[in-house]
Amino acid sequence: MRRVLAVLLLAVTAVLGLATPAFAHNVLLGSDPADGAKLATGPAKVTLTFDQPVQFGFNTVTVTSTDGAHWEAGPATVAGNAVSAPVRPLGPAGEYTIGYRVLSADGHPVTGAVRFTLTTPGTGTPASVAPTGTAAPSAGGGGGTPVWPWIVGAVVLLAAGVVIALRLGRSEDGQR
Amino acid sequence: MTRGAVRGRTARPWLVTGLVVAAVVGVLAGTAATAQPPVPGLVGPGPMIRYGVPVARVLLDLAALVTVGLSLLPKLLGFDRPAHTEPVLAVARPAAVVTSAVWVVAALAALVLQTAELHPGEPVTVGDVAGYVRRIGAGEGLVIVAACALAYLVVAVLAVRWGETVPAELRIVVAMFAVLPLPVTGHAANTGVNLHDLSMISMELHVMAAVAWTGGLAAAVTLLATNRGLLADVLPRFSRLATIALATVAVTGVFNGWFELYLTPGIHWYTALATTGYGRLVLVKVACLVTLAALGAIIRYRLLPRIVRHERTALAGWAATELAVMGLAFGIAVVLTRTPVIS
């Protein structure tokens, strides 16, 4: 047992040595415009600031009015702890919602919303087709082969392997 | 008497039913309790993904802990009475082949589901998964887990073929090594904080102790529940392991829970215990631990002396209850690693 413990301690050390630093979930510290802000003119861009750096890629920032129309003008960009997205000139006065989904380095997406109010109507029109607002084209973009057939194949292969292995073991048992 | 008859009499696989059911219930209830309201303008992952990811992760944990438990069994049984222990190990070895296969599949399923979580509303492609593995620590971790579990599967098949000449230590080390990668990709650690390394080590110790404790109990009671002769040997050995595991799980768990709350800006950790979903789940886990300590104490001080005297006891019932509480704790653990403290 002591030998096992020693090997395990070594293993832990090895894993910790190799491990890339993992982050906790990002927490939103502030935004521009701030949550609950009342603005006379629409912002040209919205910025969300987090407590630690945001992973590049996989980040989405949207600006929507209460009727569900989208007002963001392009994909989100990352700069250190901040994520920002350009905004079209806003339209009717009222409440707008900045929705975000950013990726913590531990692989868990963090979502949330910040709301601000436009007090004076603008002249802008919403995007006709809602842009997806992804910072990077979907990662890898490896040709769009669906992944499920591969997983099903792996499961079938493993199951077959297990059955064969157990059969072999049993026949060996019987011979003894 | 044939070996088949011996197997039929001693193995009680249904004793882990409570463990599996409680783990799945715990993870589903915890996920529902910490669910966030949909954000306007964002396409969120569907319920298949939202509940599929935690379920795959908890099945991964269960497959891992049963595999580790089955690997520990030869050590708990000892090697001095092969005529008695060999029929039990002849059941344990093929069982480990099956559980390690489940382990591999659960890791791959979790990998695909977690990739899908980042691409809501789109079908997942091979390229998406490759990108997830390349860029996200959690993806890389799951690939390492799948590879290690596959390596274990090969060793387990060799053990089925060659019996205990395949060293038990090798199986324990490979199984434990496959347990290691995931905790460091959860939100175990933060940069810029001195306690960073300590929290990672603490998380690893927590997971290893919990897995060895639960897995050892699951393997021992399912395969030995009615074998009073072997229980008298195995349970005192397991009891020592369980005591160390209980102490380790308690100390590291309290530290990790506190640390995560303490690090989150904008809240005080003591109020967050009651006001955040994360804090409440930490309290539920502490309650689980207290219950486990009580159940363990009953087995240790009330049943163990009689088991050592080869008397008939209600061990199966108590152990199944303890396993169910452990399952609940594992289910909640999965939710805790995924939930932001505040949303």
From TrEMBL, chain A:
GO terms for biological process: copper ion transport; response to copper ion. Residues 1-24 form the signal peptide. Residues 25-118 form the CopC domain. GO terms for molecular function: copper ion binding. The chain crosses the membrane at residues 147-168. Residues 121-141 are annotated as: Disordered. Residues 121-138 have a biased composition (Low complexity). One of its GO terms (cellular component) is plasma membrane. Keywords: Copper, Membrane, Metal-binding, Signal, Transmembrane, Transmembrane helix. Gene3D superfamilies: 2.60.40.1220. It comes from the Bacteria. It is found in: Cell envelope. This is Copper resistance protein C.
Automatic annotation (TrEMBL), chain B:
It is a multi-pass membrane protein. GO terms for cellular component: plasma membrane. It holds the Pfam family CopD. Residues 233-336 form the Copper resistance protein D domain. The keyword Cell membrane applies. Its main location: membrane. This is Copper resistance protein CopD. It comes from Gandjariella thermophila.
